[in-house]
Design goal:
Chain A: It is a multi-pass membrane protein. The complex is a heterodimer. Chain A is α+β, with helices and mostly antiparallel strands. Chain A contains 28 helices and 24 strands. In chain B, the strands form 2 sheets. Chain B has a 6-stranded mixed sheet, sandwiched between helices. In chain B, strands 2-1-4-5 form a 4-stranded antiparallel sheet, covered by helices on one side. Classes of the chains: A alpha+beta, B alpha/beta. Chains A and B meet through helix 16, helix 24 and helix 28 of A and helix 3 and helix 4 of B.
């Protein structure tokens, strides 16, 4: 049977290649993902073990190891050297430059030193420091230069005696800045990336490190006395004497070490630490593998389709085999062998492609010098090799199961019949229909339930129900695709058919083999639905969050400044100068600005008082700049707008007279100015918090309060991610605080956009595979219909019309798949948003028309491109040659 | 092979009768003399392959096919009869010589012009019927008209529609397809399919209908039916039919039988009967000893 299988494969090589491409891409995806996961794990492993240098053993302790503990351990026979390690940071200052590196003590043994000396020497005395090369460059220092360590030292109040401690919960005392002058004696490099995570570590002698650690420990630990002994180490690295038995020394160390101390070899310790760390990267790998699985599922549809067609085309040959004595099992085996070979070959190629891609990426990243030490070459583990090969081959063979069964159904008699074009098989099984409807309905019901649950209670429960419902209904949709996709394609075709004969032919062609059309469209449907779901979900989430932000933060951007502005001639003025307002107004994307006073007022009503934040703002200007102008409705010189929260707390109703006393608190926390009380009529609006009144009302209090805030409104809140940084840039020389909805929005937008880009990129692989499927289906159709095309050519179809027919066919299949996918994806996206964000507030559904349009457009163009090669082949064939074909 | 066209020289060939038509009650046919031939070949050759493998499928053939006549082309397998038909129909390109459809020289036309020519002036009937499976009988019949499209101008469009509708009804009535119009090919018998194919070939009122073994896939009764329809389309509807066949009985339905052997005209029989055709074929066989293709089609 193998000879026959190979012979048949040779004959169908072109067709198999196209199908294999789908598997190649899918397995390359899997291989690259696994390698990337491996690189991440390995990088963290290296980074972890790098800080242990060449230590033989590592001791870790939950409770921390004291200097005394270390001394005891150091005395254990077989221990050559032992150094404590702790996490300690120091702020280094050189002129205007600052850095906050980790601090490590110079190792007592070269084997325990993680960093290398580039120039100068290791510190040998107190006040000497060795700095990583890049950090020294940033600080602008070299060997021999001074460097200041800015130390915060806790001084307990003399009145408080730690022993009698009146209030041990809140030890009284002050932090004072005690600068220490250091001298740079050496420059370091960190080739293994031991401190890559923390941005580098400086080396000092143990005395300095211990003292700083003790200073840090004092005060933060209640009742501690600044004793060096209280500053503990988290771990110790140990170098053994030559010839010492690791097992014996470990046992001896464990015997003397305090409770809760673990002694492991360096490799074991690294492995243990990595397993703690890799949870994150494993989840990442799992998620990406999930996308790879989707890509493989789509590939399976493409493969299955291709084999169906191959079997249909080989009906005669198969029947002939049956005539000469092949039994059903042999035919079935032959098909599965073919699939297995194809799968194996494609997976091997995919593996090579994936490894190659990963290697190229590593080389590029390595050259970019990202600071993270990456392995120069990918490490090929057995999992990286086996998983893609096994998965790719299995997927191919499974996809060929149904076609293999079809092969066994070929009757021997078929060999004797004239070979007609594959007939229009209208096999519509009722169970399939029932299953499809059932799955869709149940899934949709679950989705609805998830939305309801999501509004009220547990988001996780809702998510679980929603995911289940989504999967069920989507499987239902796919199972039922054979029933409705051809109809939709046919209907779309009929719409076009009035235009031209080519369109009419194309429309008729797409419905002649419903199963194949459905499978081809479905392959595309999967990818497009997911892409559309993600886009819609992202857009709706963004709109919903925007809505929530609009309510919470009525102001797009609020820029506040405390320090008075100092002009060139030394005169001071209000913190917010007209020039500053103009600068903000000039930033592209800002359409409205208003300067105002942000202050505190004491609000008094019916004997009750409350301190609250207040704004003195011009009502007209406020209306223009606020997203919800209704918040300032009714504001004039005789009124004060109150938020409902305050009104409720003080029992104020609209129209009540309230008394306000303004107060300005300076940057040092001292009240800078106060005014006389003023009585105003309360107006209640949907102001989210505080009180607003007019500058006129403020003037009546007599308080001389500076203008200290600018509110800005953006032309389009969706531009927040570009406009907010632009405002920051424009005001980079002024100390201001920038807050507001746009800032939050910009952050959300960045997160959502990044996630969306990544997810869509990953799903894009599935879409590409599906488009290969469209091209494959078209070229197979062309081959099948050679004689038919020849007939059409003979009776007057021009080459152009023939090509147009195939182009329209491709665009119909791809376009319908994409449009249905976009619609389904939008629905799923809405359901997802309603489920997840529902509890956060009113859900606002949005349709990302631009993105959906782009997806459909890409599908249409791809459908068109997919028809180019088959179309050329069909048009080139002379009608006579094609008519001669049996 | 250096055989030149000497159709009447073979001694055993059936006596070449003058093209006189003392038959039926048709009006005396003036076309045979006055109108130009519907299709013509002049020194038409088709060569396949090069060097040693060269095959002269058609070797400098000169022949005229009268308009308004039913001509059968016969010959053994490989005699070039299909090649001749393909060249005359503009389906294939000649190696040398000229082919004319009416007054139009089709050798040398580009693909676009040939396509239009086939669409507007030529009809085809195939052995395998070659109907489009996804279209109904009616849609199949109207296909050539749809391919041509309708005039843009509204009145001309309406007129063209009405004219073609009338012609369609005539064809459907003549071919007895009225109750089969909504069926798809898969739901039709072979004979019915071939009748649909004939209607499709005639719908555009082509100058010539080429039929390639139209009865090859039919039982004898359906075959006879199809042949009578082809003859009626010539005699009653005034069409021109050129049919390639290997079946002497089928050829006998024609007004004239042209015999081909080794790419050259080997005989010409007017008013054929099955017997006279057989005799002509026998003569051919005795001439060069080739085995005639009298077996079943495939």
């Amino acid at each position: 049977m193998w000879r026959l299988t190979l012979a048949q494969m040779r004959r169908s090589l072109g067709r198999l290649t196209a199908a294999g491409l789908a598997i190649v891409i899918g397995t390359a995806f899997v291989a690259a993902t696994l390698i990337a996961g491996g690189v991440i794990t390995r990088t963290s492993y290296d980074a972890v073990s790098a800080s242990y240098a060449d230590a033989d053993l590592v001791a870790t302790s939950e409770g921390g190891l004291t200097a005394a503990d270390l001394a005891t351990l150091r005395d254990t026979p077989g221990v050559e050297a032992l150094d404590g390690r702790r996490s300690l940071r120091v702020e280094l200052v050189s002129g205007p430059q600052r850095a906050v590196p980790e601090v490590a003590a110079v190792a007592s043994d070269p084997r325990l030193e993680a960093q290398e000396l580039v120039s100068g020497a290791f510190p040998t005395a107190v006040g000497e420091v060795a700095v990583p090369g890049p950090m020294a460059e940033r600080l602008g220092v070299g060997v021999g230069d001074p460097l200041t360590a800015s130390r915060q030292v806790w001084t307990p109040d003399a009145a408080q005696d730690p022993a009698t401690g009146t209030d041990p919960e809140e030890p009284a005392g002050t932090w004072t800045n005690v600068p220490e002058e250091l001298t740079v004696v050496g420059l370091l490099s960190d080739p293994a990336g031991a401190f890559a995570e923390s941005g580098g570590a400086v080396l000092v002698v143990a005395d300095d490190a211990d003292r700083w650690a003790a200073q840090d420990a004092t005060g933060s630990v209640v009742g501690s006395s600044g004793d060096v002994a209280t500053a503990t180490f988290t771990r110790a690295v140990i170098a053994l004497t030559d010839g010492a038995d690791v097992g014996q020394v470990t046992a001896a160390l464990e015997a003397t070490a305090p409770e809760g101390t673990t002694i492991r070899t360096k490799d074991d310790e690294a492995a243990a630490k990595v397993s703690e760390l890799t949870n994150g990267s494993d989840i990442l790998t799992t998620i990406v593998l999930g996308f790879a699985a989707i890509a493989l599922l789509v590939a399976a549809l493409v493969i299955s389709n291709t084999f169906q067609v191959l079997i249909a085309q080989r009906t005669r040959a198969l029947a002939l085999l049956r005539c000469v004595g092949a039994d059903k099992r042999q035919l079935r085996r032959s098909v599965l062998q073919e699939a297995g070979l194809l799968g194996l070959a494609s997976s091997a190629l995919g593996l090579a492609l994936g490894v190659g891609l990963a290697q190229v990426t590593l080389s590029v990243l390595g050259r970019m010098n990202s600071g993270v030490p990456l392995p120069p070459t990918v490490s090929i583990t057995s999992a990286v090799v086996l998983a893609p090969l096994v998965v790719g081959t299995l997927v191919t063979v499974m996809a060929a199961l149904a076609p293999a069964r079809a092969a066994t159904k070929v009757a021997p008699l078929a060999a004797l019949r004239p070979a007609d074009a594959p007939t229009l098989a209208h096999r519509r099984s009722l169970p399939r229909l029932v299953l499809a409807v059932l799955l869709t309905v149940v899934g949709a019901a679950l989705l609805g339930l998830a939305v309801v649950v999501g509004q009220s209670s547990d988001a996780f429960l809702a998510l679980g129900i929603g995911v289940l419902g989504g999967i069920l209904s989507f499987v239902g949709v796919l199972v039922g695709a054979v029933f409705w996709v051809p109809r939709v394609v046919g209907a779309a075709g009929r719409l076009l058919a009035t235009r031209s004969m080519a369109a009419k032919l194309a429309a008729a062609n797409t419905v002649r083999n419903p199963r194949r059309t459905a499978a081809t469209s479905a392959a595309l449907l999967i990818g497009v639905t997911l892409v559309a779901m993600m886009s819609t979900g992202a857009a709706s989430t963004r709109t919903t969050l925007d809505g929530a932000l609009d309510d919470q933060f009525p102001v797009d951007v609020a820029i506040s400044r405390d320090a008075p502005a100092v002009a060139a001639d030394g005169t001071t003025s209000d913190p917010v100068t007209p020039a500053l307002v103009a600068t903000v107004a000039d930033v592209p994307g800002v359409i409205e600005t208003v300067a105002l006073r942000d202050l505190f007022v004491q609000l008094e009503f019916g004997g009750a008082t409350e301190w609250t934040d207040a704004f003195a703002i011009d009502p007209a200007a406020a209306g223009a700049v606020l997203r919800a102008p209704s918040m300032m409705a009714g504001l004039d010189d005789s009124t004060a707008v109150l938020s409902s929260g305050i009104a409720e707390r003080l029992g104020i109703s609209a129209g009540d007279r309230v008394t306000l006393t303004p107060e300005l608190v300076g940057p040092d926390g001292v009240t800078a100015a106060t005014g006389e009380p003023v009585e105003l009529t309360a107006v209640l609006t949907d102001l989210p918090g505080g009180v607003a009144f007019t500058p006129g009302a403020l003037a009546r209090t007599g308080a001389d309060l500076p203008t200290n805030q600018v509110w800005a409104r953006l032309a389009d809140s969706n531009d927040a991610s570009t406009v907010v940084p632009a405002i920051e840039d424009a005001l980079s020389e002024t100390a201001v605080q920038i807050a507001g909805a746009a800032v939050e929005r910009a952050m959300f937008q960045r997160i959502i956009d990044t996630l969306l880009a990544v997810v869509v990129g990953l799903l894009g692989v599935a879409v590409v595979i599906a488009l290969i499927g469209v091209a494959n289906t078209l070229s197979l159709s062309v081959l099948e219909r050679r004689r038919e095309s020849a007939t059409l050519r003979a009776i007057g179809l021009s080459r152009r019309q023939l090509r147009a027919m195939l182009a329209i066919e491709g665009m119909l299949i791809a376009g319908v798949g994409a449009v249905i996918g976009a619609v389904l994806g939008t629905l799923y996206g809405w359901a997802g948003v309603a489920t997840l964000v529902g509890s956060m507030g009113e859900v606002r559904l949005d349709v990302p028309w631009g993105q959906l349009g782009l997806v459909v457009l890409v599908a249409l163009v791809a459908g068109l491109l997919a028809s180019v090669i088959p179309g050329r082949a069909a048009a080139r064939t002379s009608p006579v040659a094609a008519l001669a074909v049996d | 092979m250096d055989r030149t066209v000497q159709p009447a020289e073979s001694p055993a060939a059936a006596p070449r009768q003058a093209v006189a038509r003392p038959k039926l009650s048709l009006p005396a046919d003036p076309r045979s003399a006055a109108t130009p031939p519907a299709a013509r070949a002049r020194a038409l050759s088709k060569v396949y392959g090069t060097g040693e493998a060269t095959v002269r499928a058609l070797d400098a053939v000169d022949i005229d096919f009268a308009a308004g006549a039913f001509t059968a082309i016969m010959g053994p397998s490989g005699s070039g009869k299909s090649t001749l038909m393909h060249l005359l129909a503009g389906l294939d390109t000649a190696s040398s010589g000229q082919a004319f459809l009416g007054a139009t020289e089709i050798t040398g036309l580009d693909d676009g012009a040939l396509t239009r020519l086939r669409r507007d002036r030529v009809g085809f009937v195939f052995q395998q019927f070659n109907l489009l499976p996804m279209f109904t009988a009616e849609q199949n019949i109207l296909l050539p008209l749809e391919l041509a499209g309708l005039p843009r101008e509204a009145r001309a469009r309406a007129a063209a529609k009405a004219a073609s509708r009338e012609w369609f009804d005539t064809l459907v009535a003549t071919l007895g397809l009225a109750d089969r119009l909504t069926h798809r090919p898969a739901e039709l018998s072979g004979g019915q399919q071939q009748r649909v194919a004939i209607a499709r070939a005639l719908i555009a009122k082509p100058d010539v209908v080429f039929a390639d073994e139209p009865t090859g896939n039919l039982d004898s009764r359906s075959g006879a039916e199809v042949l009578s329809f082809l003859r009626r389309s010539v005699r009653e509807l005034g069409r021109t039919v050129i049919m390639v066949t290997h079946d002497p009985a089928a050829a006998a339905y024609a007004d004239r039988v042209v015999l081909l052997a080794d790419g050259a005209i080997a005989g010409d029989i007017s008013e054929p009967t099955p017997e006279s055709v057989l005799a002509g074929l026998d003569a051919l066989r005795s001439l060069d000893g080739s085995v005639l293709d009298t077996a079943a089609a495939r």
